[in-house]
Amino acid sequence: MLWHHRTKIGLALLYLVLGTAVYFGYRGPAGDRTFLLGCLVVSGFLLGAAALVVPVERCPECDDDLGYFRGRGPLRNMQRRKPRYKTCRQCGHVVDRWE
Question: Are residues 8 and 41 in the same domain?
Answer without folding.
Answer: yes
